[in-house]
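User: Fold this; tokens only.

Assistant: Input:
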Amino acid sequence: MKKLAVFALLVSIIYACGSNGDRGELTGVKSKRKWFAEKPYGMAKIPGGSFTMGKQDEDPLGAMNAPTKTVTVQPFYMDESEITNSEYKQFVYWVRDSVTRTKLAYQAEFASSGEEGADGEKPAGIQLYAFASKDTVNETPYEKYMRENYYEVGEGLDSLKPLNWEEDLIWEQQEFPDADYVEVMDSLYIKKEEALNGIRTFKTKLLNYRYYWFDNEKAAKSGKDRKEFMKNEEINIYPDTTVWIKDFNYSYNDPMHQEYFAHKAYENYPVVGVSWNQAKAFCHWRTQTKNNFQRSKKKLGLVPAFRLPTEAEWEYAARGGLNYAKYPWGGPSTTSDRGCFLANFKPVRGDYAADGALYTVEAVSYNANEYGLYNMAGNVAEWTNTAYNQMSYYMGSTMNPNVENRENRRKIIRGGSWKDVAYFLEVSSRDWEYADTARSYIGFRTVQDYLGTSKSK
């Protein structure tokens, strides 16, 4: 009984003093990591605020699908320019390398040669690309559990075995280390009889990206088990280079078809031939890439997801703080006081080159608007996250409006392009395209939420 009384006394003393040094006061739960809003590379901060959205001037097409109303959007970051060929290639190359490393790893398991010798020498040839080995001797209970219940379960794409990213891939044919490596690489390239001028290229049909996303809106409204709202997508992410031919009948655009995405001369030009679905996959990959880096540093918190802008966010950013402007630079003309065109579009019927460019121009061209954004009018039209509905302006909320409907395959594009007339360059003009369609005049840029609000006292 005495021991029990002493124990109770100790417990009461601990609670009275405060186990965390808070002296029993309400101090809140302190995070181990401090959050610092870091502006992502190549993005501009859009301050957020209210503006008058929609047509505020004449509507020569009589579309009547953009009535004016005052809306408010939250602060966010936006890419200063359209996503370029070079930036999208980073995505394509990551998928290509993932596919290659996966096939090499399975071939390494199948191959019987190249096993580690008795003297502990490093494996050679295909074995260098085997799945990343686990230290089963010194692994923690958590690591052992995950290995036995996840990593060693499943085959093919359903396997979670970690790939080996430490060993550089070998692309030069003369440097392939062994026959197993040659066999894998041979399976990844088109056949000789299909090669143009004897040049075998990587099979683009293998460049598939699988990712998962959660349908927040449906889950919030239904209240059912969350597993019913976990969605998975698998999509081929290589741009459709044939759009340069398919979009224009009786027109010679073969050089753009052959070189636009492949040649280094176009590295800094906006990527085209990318569907809405592919743009969404790019956003997911960009988020994962950044957060994988954040996790590796341990002390860094995860960043909000990169995504496509809503229609309202896009229009607010395009206006650059000029509430009643017709174009991103103000207006009402498409030329400067010196007669120079201020965007890449089709100024005159049949004359695409009057503004200095026949097709697209580099993503960073002309003058940026007041928010530091380039080519918010012209060059390429841009995908938004919003589904097209003629009544969207009426249906959407006045706070962060966005009519998002996955079942509606029509997605809004904004900004006009190199092949459009000036009407589509207006910040309030709307157009749409099907989500699974790619065009030679549609690209995209991404946004990221800005967390928190800083207000001076």
